[in-house]
Amino acid sequence: MKRRLLAIAMTLAMTLSLLPVTALAEGTAAGDFTVTGNEGSYSFDADSGVLTIKGDVTVKNTNSGTPTDDVIVIEGGSEDEPIEVTLAGVNIAVDENGGSAITIQAGDQDANYAESHVKLILAENSVNKLKAAPIDNWSYVPAHAIDMYAGGYGDKGSNNTLTISGKGTLYAYGSNNSFPDAGGSGIYGGQYSVITIESGTVNAYGYGNKGGGITGFGGENSKIVISDGEVNAYVEGNYNDEGAAIGGSVGTVKISGGTVNASSKYGGSAIGSAKGFTSPNITISGGAVTATANGSGAAIGGGEISSTKNTIEITDGTVVATANTGVAIGWDKGDAEDLWDGPITATLTLSGGTVYAESASGDGIGKGTAESRVNLTTGAVIVTNAIDEDLKTDSNLTGVILEGTGLKPNDITGTE
């Protein structure tokens, strides 16, 4: 009898001990989300529909097949210990009130140069969808699917960092305003922010004037860094889409690995600057990069009437750059003569990898104004429809170069 009672007591104790673990594993309801994390790491305001995250959590929609208009705000973390937020099936479509799906907000709204540091982890096999909506559909007030610059056009939030990794998939759609001069980006950074993609599949869509796929607001210290994963960035929408697919007005774009596909529509570049903005420093040192400019911007380089004093450097990887009326890689001769930054005085270096550059009605490789410097040297394998004639006189063309119309990417050994 005693043995039987002891066995029952032990079974009951083991069952009870599992309950908290099960509850933690299943998470807690927070509006339309289910959140797993320590107490105090998050809170939910039912009146506003805002889930505020200040610590490491896992988030998913309770019903992943149904989008919610509840939104997420993340704040806090440090460069050494960023807040880790795992997206395990989040599906947000902001309603007619407008705004961003995820906002990375400065941790201390009362302090200048406040900042937050966040790592978004895409759970294995998860699909996460974020869709912004215009804050005011008929005014110049766009919204971004992920907004890192919530502090506004001052100092707050301008130092925020975002790192994306994992084995899942993210779709990020900026707002598509009816007002033609407004539009949102898929992922939007601040004046000194750093956006890093380490792994996972990231699909980012921008709309409207200056809205881009993965972009940022001004500042030579702002960066977009892609080291691995699959990144697809697109500019879509109406006739006034002048944003860059990757870049915008950030200071630096660095690609060292992964598969990157970028496509712009009208005046912006695929990888580089939006129309009328300063082109960033662009470095490609690995990976498979496909950049397509369907309008007047460069595939890799400056948007229409863009200026720069920066560089484009390709040292490795496979690069396929195609343009419509703009230059495929580089800057157009008519760019930037009347902008506040002055004429183009940039440096273009193609020293390694395999590069295909074609423009339907412009140069495959162009140097812009006479002040530009171009270096096409050892190691580069280049296929192009045309090289700027001025460029040829300034450069030591010692790479393997095929020049002529009708050439295709597979004319380079190793490309697809």
Average pLDDT, to the nearest integer? 80
Shape verdict:
elongated
Poorly predicted runs of 5 or more residues? 1-24, 152-157, 335-340
* Total helical segments: 2
Helical residues, percent: under 10%
CA-CA gap between termini: 76 Å
Structural class: mainly beta
Strand content: 35-45%
What's the count of strands?
Answer: 34
What does this structure look like?
There is one protein chain. By secondary structure, this protein is mainly beta. It is built from 2 helices and 34 strands. The strands form 2 sheets. It has a 22-stranded mixed sheet that branches. It is elongated, with a radius of gyration of 24 Å.
Concise overview:
This protein is mostly beta strands. It contains two helices and 34 strands. The protein has helices at 2-26, 389-394, and strands at residues 28-30, 33-37, 42-45, 50-53, 57-61, 71-75, 83-87, 91-93, 102-105, 117-122, 127-131, 146-147, 161-166, 169-173, 187-189, 194-197, 201-207, 214-216, 223-226, 230-236, 246-248, 252-255, 259-264, 271-273, 281-293, 300-301, 311-323, 329-331, 347-350, 354-359, 365-367, 373-376, 381-384, 400-403.
List keywords for this structure.
2 helices, 39% strand, elongated, disordered N terminus
Secondary-structure blueprint:
Elements: H1 2-26, E1 28-30, E2 33-37, E3 42-45, E4 50-53, E5 57-61, E6 71-75, E7 83-87, E8 91-93, E9 102-105, E10 117-122, E11 127-131, E12 146-147, E13 161-166, E14 169-173, E15 187-189, E16 194-197, E17 201-207, E18 214-216, E19 223-226, E20 230-236, E21 246-248, E22 252-255, E23 259-264, E24 271-273, E25 281-293, E26 300-301, E27 311-323, E28 329-331, E29 347-350, E30 354-359, E31 365-367, E32 373-376, E33 381-384, H2 389-394, E34 400-403
Parallel strand pairs: 4-6, 5-7, 6-9, 7-10, 8-11, 9-12, 10-13, 11-14, 12-15, 13-16, 14-17, 15-18, 16-19, 17-20, 18-21, 19-22, 20-23, 21-24, 22-25, 23-25, 24-26, 25-27, 26-28, 27-29, 27-30, 28-31, 29-32, 30-33, 33-34
Antiparallel strand pairs: 1-2, 2-5, 3-4
